[in-house]
Design brief:
Length: 254
């Protein structure tokens, strides 16, 4: 596991975009796992600003981590629309290159299984991840299985409150979703987690320094052989304070 500490959220985005570009470079095809939430936004902006030509030359397929159940199809709050607007279109990718779980299927459980097969067969090269303040990845909330495959999940009240900023009111935040399981996520060849802000400090410390436990789904990253974490100083503060156990590649400026 490699920890890189950046000065601020836009530096997190730049360094993460450079890391993605490094993995893509020289490849004819690339399967990129993409995430939603505010954490990866600066990465998408930097990819479009600094690495757009790479996206013109490499055949990209992108796979989302999750999708809400219960929103009108095409509504801007869906993760499909969010990723089209923030990631795929700014990079000139055709909409068909973005794959998302079919949360509108008559049987969402069957749709989850189909999506799991799609992601498994694609063999994701690099999965970009954020982390929830409760340590969730994708929508794998605390006390869900660390070996799960893509499934229908229920959101915790904390996650619904956290994500309510993307909705007119809390009551409009869906209660369920389809999410890649932790086991599915761990199948990606490389995991790249981005985090910024003091609100993520506890979750990041639990994920990296704590025991591997279903109480913190992100702690499963400790089981993966190729993990890069790029965090700003605030999010990494507890890791920096932990000393030699977590030596950043780029020490924070004082
Ligand atoms: C949502 C997404 C997660 C994301 C999390 C953190 O719950 N399903 O994939 O990591 O939000 O969001 P933010 O980056 O906005 O803090």
């Amino acid at each position: 596991m490699e920890l890189i500490v950046a000065d601020d959220p836009s530096a997190v985005g730049r360094m993460a975009a450079d890391e993605i570009a490094k993995h893509m470079s020289g490849r004819r095809e690339f399967r990129l796992g993409v995430a939603t939430g505010s954490s990866p936004l600066a990465t998408y902006v930097s990819l479009a600003e600094n690495h757009r030509t790479l996206f013109d030359t490499v055949d990209i397929n992108a796979f989302a981590l999750d999708e809400y159940i219960g929103l009108p199809q095409g509504s801007p709050a869906t993760y499909r629309q969010t990723l089209l607007q923030t990631f795929a279109r700014p990079l000139g990718l055709p909409d068909e290159a973005l794959h998302t779980p079919d949360a509108w299927a008559p049987d969402p459980h069957a749709a989850a299984r189909r999506y799991d097969e799609l992601v498994r067969d694609a063999a994701v090269d690099l999965q970009l991840l954020g982390i929830g303040v409760n340590g969730h990845i994708g929508f794998n909330e605390p006390f869900s299985s660390l070996s799960s495959r893509t499934h229908v999940a229920e959101l915790t009240e904390q996650t619904r409150r956290d994500n309510s900023r993307f909705f007119p009111s809390l009551s409009e935040v869906p209660t369920h979703c389809i999410t890649q399981g932790v086991g599915t996520i761990l199948n990606a060849a490389t995991l790249l987690l981005v985090a910024h802000g003091a609100a993520k400090a506890d979750a990041l410390a639990d994920a990296i320094l704590g025991p591997v436990t279903w109480a913190c789904p992100a702690s499963a990253l400790q089981l993966h052989p190729d993990v890069i974490i790029i965090a700003d100083i605030q999010a990494a503060m507890k890791l920096i304070n932990a000393g030699p156990a977590a030596t950043p590649r780029q020490p924070a400026r004082t």
